[in-house]
Specification:
The chain is mainly alpha-helical. The chain folds into two domains: 61 residues, no CATH class; 64 residues, Winged helix-like DNA-binding domain superfamily/Winged helix DNA-binding domain (Arc Repressor Mutant, subunit A, Orthogonal Bundle).
């Protein structure tokens, strides 16, 4: 860990590269799982996070605008637990048949859940639903 070793410049460079790589898909997981050192590190270096409004608030200074959460990005209705399960499996690039097998339901049930997810998130296909769910921190 560069930050733990006191190499602030190198830590900032590596973190900036990681943030740039994660930005297109709004991948928050690696940053949330990085350990307790990351939040204070980022909070004291607002320049690193100013272009990444999609990061959870716990990793951004309060002064950074929440550009990732606009009114049109809000879900119309909350997803049910089963819809969340389906969406999580779809985000792992599982096919409809694989999701059905994993959840022990029919393919038609999975398709029904996917239609409901698309309706609630205002999307038209599964990849868009996954991107929107990540942006809304549902995944």
């Amino acid at each position: 860990m560069c930050a733990a070793d006191g190499d602030d410049r190198r830590a900032r460079q590596l973190l900036a590269r990681a943030l740039a790589t994660a930005r297109p898909d709004h991948l928050c997981g690696p940053f949330l799982e990085a350990g307790p050192w990351l939040a204070p590190f980022l909070l004291h270096r607002p320049a690193l996070t100013e272009a990444h409004g999609w990061l959870p608030r716990s990793l951004r200074p309060a002064a950074v605008p929440d550009s990732g959460e606009r009114l049109e990005d809000a879900a119309v209705e909350p997803l049910s637990r089963r819809e969340q399960d389906v969406l999580a499996l779809v985000a792992q690039l599982m096919s409809t048949q694989e999701v059905a097998g994993d959840l022990h339901v029919s393919v038609n049930t999975v398709k029904t859940h996917l239609k409901s997810i698309n309706r609630k998130l205002g999307t038209s296909h599964r990849a868009e639903a996954v991107r929107r769910a990540r942006r809304l921190h549902l995944l």
